[in-house]
Write a structure and sequence with these properties.
Blueprint lengths: L15 E5 L5 E6 L8 H19 L9
């Protein structure tokens, strides 16, 4: 829904990745992605994205009564 991601208007970099937490809030954004031919830059970007996702998945799940 556009009203949920107002900051996503007029994107000029593809791909643009939004990291959305369990609470529905945008926790991070990355713009662009280095291809495999860029070597270590691709490896570093891939590792960064995996680390972000793993950190977010490791966070406790909050119930509606705990919010």
């Amino acid at each position: 829904a556009p009203e949920k991601l107002a900051q996503a208007v007029n994107l000029n970099s593809f791909p643009t990745t939004f990291f959305v937490g369990r609470d529905g809030r945008v926790r991070g954004v990355t713009a662009g992605f280095p291809g495999k031919a860029s070597g270590k830059f691709h490896d570093e970007a891939t590792a960064d994205i995996i680390a972000r996702i793993e950190r977010m998945l490791a966070e406790p799940v909050r119930t509606s009564s705990a919010q």
